[in-house]
Write a structure and sequence with these properties.
Length: 122
């Protein structure tokens, strides 16, 4: 189990990582490009909000399927419900205090092509 925390500490989320984080995703959609978050994917049942549920706000755009969750106090994106698979969350691994920046930026990272998402095609 790992704990995700926003910057101000108002939001804490317990996540059950079934395996070691061996690769991260960065999405190139208009939202993710701007926030620059590096995420790993977990199943919905493996995420539990343990503090600050009322502080979590949600932003949606375009197809209104994905849900981008962030702390209303500090603005840090903690997790998102993925439109590619709404049974999973993308979690912001930068919010896991145990992962140090020098470790985070050495992890294998690939780009998810959110600009050309299959659900945007008619």
């Amino acid at each position: 189990m790992k704990i995700l925390k926003c910057h101000c500490g108002e939001v804490e989320i317990q996540v059950d990582l079934k395996k070691e984080i061996d690769q991260l995703k960065r999405c190139n959609c208009s939202m993710c490009k701007r926030k620059g978050t590096m995420v790993t994917t977990i199943n919905k049942q493996d995420l539990k909000i343990i503090k600050g549920a009322k502080k979590i706000k949600t932003y949606q755009f375009k197809t209104n399927v994905a849900k981008h969750h962030f702390c209303s106090e500090c603005g840090i994106h903690t997790h998102n419900l993925r439109r590619a698979d709404p049974n999973t969350y993308g979690i912001n691994v930068g919010c896991i205090d145990e992962i140090k920046p020098n470790e985070l930026f050495k992890m294998k990272t690939f780009v998810s092509d959110g600009q050309n998402h299959i659900k945007d095609r008619s």
